């Protein structure tokens, strides 16, 4: 029997004499020779725990130990064991899954605790992964290929738990990674940053339509051509929110037309932070096959052309627009203008 560290031993003692040798016997009569130190035990004293512990470890619950010197019994020990609550094992499978889910939901913002939950039981893994993999970021030090090597079987991949996917350096996403990206079919927000000053030749084709339920796209670039931008936008049919951010002034490419015969919903928010101004992007938004119906528009005014472009955007969204935020760099002021539907024409 292994040692139960937290067991409670209740020991009753009688008079103990000096002895260098003794025979200990269990209640069932089994003898066990042990040497006792030449120590004098006072009347009614407790036997040394150091001496008794090895006997207590092998003594069955409820048994009694007798220490004999010659034919005289000098010590009788009654051992009562009370199992520790910490030692009692409760099968994890006996815990209702609803309770397990509530426990993990309570610590959903603590990644360290969530990782610990994954090693408790298989029943805990699925719910913990829901929060551990809700947001994934790929960058040069953590490429899509590493994910594929870690989770080679798509059926066991936690990619379906991901709701926000961030990709830095999309040029590192190769053709071999396309099938891996398709496993992230539950992504609702995509953040893409080319992170290059010379991204004119960067292709976003591997990202096209990998998630059929994508609702928000945030794209940061330097000199990325408009065809790459709008072909990516049109590949997500239920896209609602669009944010475009440029780091420097780009050359306009007015000769480009939208190649897709369909376009996304675009019924959420539009945020344009373009150093070259918003006219180039606005003109292409106006030519999308299905148009757009934004409820919130955030744009900068860097030139007179931006004012005209804003008027076109507002006119197209006259039935849905709820607010219009303008960063007016022409006058150096910032304007945030709520626009009631009834006042839009």
Task: Describe the strand arrangement of the main beta sheet, using strand numbers.
Answer: 5-6-7-8-9-10-11-12-13
Question: Roughly how much helix do the residues carry, as a percent range?
Answer: 10-25%
Mean pLDDT: 76
In terms of DSSP E residues, the strand content is 15-25%
3D shape = elongated
- Overall radius of gyration: 37 Å
Biggest beta sheet attributes: 9 strands, mixed
Structure in words:
By secondary structure, this protein is an alpha/beta fold. The protein has two domains: 21-84, no CATH class; 133-343. The protein contains nine helices and 13 strands. It has helices at residues 49-58, 97-106, 111-117, 122-132, 144-150, 178-182, 226-234, 279-286, 304-316; strands spanning 21-26, 31-35, 64-69, 72-78, 135-138, 164-168, 189-193, 216-221, 241-246, 269-273, 296-301, 323-328, 333-338. The strands form two sheets. It has a nine-stranded mixed beta sheet, with helices on one face. Helix 3 runs antiparallel to helix 4 and helix 8 packs parallel to helix 9 (304-316). The radius of gyration is 37 Å and the shape is elongated. Residues 1-28, 30-59, 67-72 and 77-88 have low confidence and may be disordered.
List its salient traits.
single chain, 345 residues, alpha/beta, 2 domains, 9-stranded mixed β-sheet, 4-stranded antiparallel β-sheet, 9 helices, 13 strands, 21% strand
In short:
The chain is an alpha/beta fold and 345 residues long. The protein has helices at residues 49-58, 97-106, 111-117, 122-132, 144-150, 178-182, 226-234, 279-286, 304-316; strands spanning 21-26, 31-35, 64-69, 72-78, 135-138, 164-168, 189-193, 216-221, 241-246, 269-273, 296-301, 323-328, 333-338.
């Amino acid at each position: 029997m292994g040692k139960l560290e937290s067991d409670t031993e209740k020991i009753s003692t009688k008079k103990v004499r000096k002895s260098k040798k003794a025979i200990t016997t269990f209640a069932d009569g089994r003898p066990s020779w042990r040497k006792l130190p030449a120590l004098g035990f006072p009347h009614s004293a407790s036997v040394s725990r150091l001496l008794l512990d090895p006997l207590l470890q092998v003594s069955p619950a409820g048994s009694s130990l007798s220490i004999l010197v010659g034919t005289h019994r000098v010590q009788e020990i009654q051992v009562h064991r009370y199992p520790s609550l910490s030692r009692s094992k409760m099968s994890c499978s006996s815990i209702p899954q609803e309770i397990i889910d509530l426990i993990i939901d309570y610590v959903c913002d603590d990644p360290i605790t969530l990782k610990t939950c994954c090693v408790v039981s298989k029943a805990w893994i699925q719910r913990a992964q829901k929060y551990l993999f809700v947001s994934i970021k790929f960058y040069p030090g953590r490429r899509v290929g590493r994910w594929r090597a870690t989770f080679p079987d798509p059926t066991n991949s936690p990619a379906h738990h991901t709701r926000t996917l961030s990709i830095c350096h999309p040029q590192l996403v190769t053709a071999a990674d396309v099938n891996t990206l398709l496993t992230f079919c539950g992504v609702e927000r995509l953040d893409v940053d080319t992170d290059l000053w010379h991204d004119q030749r960067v292709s976003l084709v591997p990202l096209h339509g990998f998630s059929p339920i994508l609702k928000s796209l945030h794209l940061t670039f330097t000199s990325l051509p408009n065809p790459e931008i709008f072909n990516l936008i049109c590949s997500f049919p239920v896209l609602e929110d669009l944010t475009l951010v440029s780091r420097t002034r780009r050359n306009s490419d007015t000769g480009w037309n939208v190649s897709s015969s369909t376009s996304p919903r675009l019924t959420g928010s539009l945020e344009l932070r373009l150093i070259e101004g918003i006219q180039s992007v606005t003109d292409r938004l106006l030519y999308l096959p299905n148009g757009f119906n934004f409820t919130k528009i955030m744009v900068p005014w860097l030139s007179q052309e931006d004012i005209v472009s804003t008027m076109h955007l507002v006119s197209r969204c006259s039935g849905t627009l709820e607010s219009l935020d303008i960063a007016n760099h022409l006058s150096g002021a910032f304007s945030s203008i709520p626009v009631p539907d009834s006042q839009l024409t």
